[in-house]
Design goal:
single chain
């Protein structure tokens, strides 16, 4: 039995409500931070995959050419035979911008029947630069790797 002066308490006290609001705020802040970080990682990963796909496609394009249709660079221009930097934004659906994308080729030393072919793409990846490089050897009469 209750005494006459006692009342039964219902609900939450002000301290409990303030504590619940503070904990909810911390949880929402952490959750939002994780969401933003995940979005940044996803965006950078898409850029990396897009640049990688373009580099691989470019090396395949040259592998599908006949030996005589592949230009040979000279040492004066660092063996560069193609600069497709201006096409990178289009080729990657806007995921990679301001990239330096080039193809280099040279005969292997003491050989006129074996070409060293390289595709190099340098691009901004988050706050730093990233480089993707594919290389292959193309020989007269076939492709070697």
């Amino acid at each position: 039995m209750r005494n006459r002066g006692e009342q039964e308490a219902f609900g939450f006290s002000l301290v409990e409500i303030m504590l619940a609001i503070a904990l909810s705020g911390v949880a929402l802040t952490v959750g939002f931070s994780i969401l933003v970080l995940g979005n940044q990682v996803s965006s950078r990963t898409e850029s990396l995959l897009a640049a990688n796909s373009v580099a691989f496609s470019k090396i395949q394009e040259y592998e599908n050419k006949t030996f005589s249709n592949i230009s040979i660079g000279d040492s004066a221009n660092n063996y560069e035979i193609e600069d497709f930097s201006s096409q990178m934004s289009t080729l990657t659906n806007g995921r990679v911008k301001n990239a330096v994308a080039k193809v280099y080729s040279e005969y292997m030393p003491n050989s006129e029947s074996l070409i060293n072919l390289r595709v190099i793409i340098d691009f901004q990846y988050g706050s730093r630069m990233r480089k993707i490089e594919y290389g292959t050897y193309i020989q007269m009469g076939g492709v070697g790797r």
